[in-house]
Amino acid sequence: MSLEDRPKSAVELALERLRQKDADTGVLERPPTDEQKAAIAEARSLHASKMAELEILQRSKMAGLFDPAERVQAEDAYRREVARVNEDLERKIGKIRGKGD
């Protein structure tokens, strides 16, 4: 059975529908340029270092906290900071990809 003859997965079918929808509405798919790839790689590298720093600081902080209420507050603050850093990465990547237009 060739690749064209085999049944398609739900993901493949969904991607086909999305590509067709984009084609119908005039959205063009452009691969990122080498400059964009480098900038995205740099943003991801910076993100990874920030995440590592946050994790180290969180572990250090949690080692010194024994009150359950304080631990919950510290964990909540950590989750918010992780979410903020992740959102920053997505925003930066979006800006980088938008520059190619």
Can you put this structure into words, describing what you see?
- 76% of the residues lie in helices and 0% in strands.
- The chain has a domain at 31-98.
- The longest helix has 31 residues, at 68-98.
- It starts with 9 loop residues before the first helix and ends with a helix.
- Helix 2 packs antiparallel against helix 3.
- The protein is mainly α and 101 residues long.
Strand content: under 5%
Shape designation = elongated
Q: Could you say which structural class the secondary elements and strand pairing correspond to?
A: mainly alpha
Order of helices and strands: HHH
Could you tell me the number of beta strands? 0
Low-pLDDT ranges = none
Biggest pleated sheet: none
- Total DSSP helices: 3
Q: How many whole angstroms does the radius of gyration measure?
A: 21 Å
What key phrases describe this protein's structure?
76% helix; 101 residues; elongated; mainly alpha; 3 helices
Any chance you could write out the topology, listing elements then pairs?
Layout: H1 10-25, H2 34-63, H3 68-98
Short description:
The chain has 101 residues and is mostly helical.
